[in-house]
Design goal:
This protein has 115 residues and is an all-beta fold. It has no helices and 11 strands.
């Protein structure tokens, strides 16, 4: 059984930084992609960043230059470093992992950017 646990969210002011973590428990084999999604009230879930098995990355246009996705394979943990946070970044952030046959979701962690 694989579980993803997202953590690191909180309340910050505009311009602040946060690092989200996504730790996997259980057997995680043949993972091709890691990603972070976010969802705000009344809006659809959107892809924020992704990291493939070859360590290639993609980012939503709205976060390019501000966010960075990474992982520590030894710790079985993925990260989303978020810099220069803006009010429009406020959302529940979900981590995601995919293998050839399965997908996995974390429970989400709330990020609120407000003065």
């Amino acid at each position: 059984q694989v579980q993803l646990v997202a953590s690191g969210g909180g309340l910050v002011q505009p311009g602040d930084s946060l690092t989200l973590s996504c730790t996997a428990s259980g057997r995680v084999l043949n993972i091709h992609d890691l990603a972070w999604y976010r969802q705000s009230p009344g809006k659809e879930r959107e892809l924020v960043a992704s990291l493939n098995s070859g360590d290639g990355t993609t980012y939503a246009d709205t976060v390019k230059g501000r966010f960075s996705i990474s992982r520590d394979r030894a710790k079985n943990t993925g990260y989303l470093q978020m810099n220069d946070l803006r009010p429009e970044d406020t959302a529940v952030y979900y981590c995601f992992a995919a293998s050839a046959a399965d997908t996995y979701w974390g429970q989400g962690t709330q990020v609120t950017v407000s003065s």
